[in-house]
């Protein structure tokens, strides 16, 4: 069985966070639900590199906006993909630090899950590169 991918999900609206957590967990993801950007950053400071597969956050948070959260998170974990979500499309221009942006209400849960799947796969990298890296020492041993 494949290990579950971990998504750090941040939203200060408890209902939205609960629904999102349920949606993702029923699709096999492990969800770390946090209500503040500060809480998420505290977690990321002690988390091992690669232990979180995606940061998903609301753009508008109470103390620190999602864009700033993404910037700081990428300082701690440079390869961490980030997805920002907002209730208004006009916040798209505020989501410049993220790898992707989704407007709430304008995309279906299936579209959101598809975007998440793509971002998590991008973090993992293409399978062909992994195989060629693993095959390199064997080729070098044969050549010796």
From TrEMBL:
Pfam family name, one: Response_reg
Domain Response regulatory: 6-119
Native species: Granulicella mallensis
The keyword Phosphoprotein appears for this protein: yes
Keyword rRNA processing included in the entry's annotation: no
Coiled coil: none
Database matches in SMART domains: REC (SM00448)
Keywords from the named record: Phosphoprotein, Two-component regulatory system
Regions crossing the membrane: none
Protein name: CheY-like chemotaxis protein
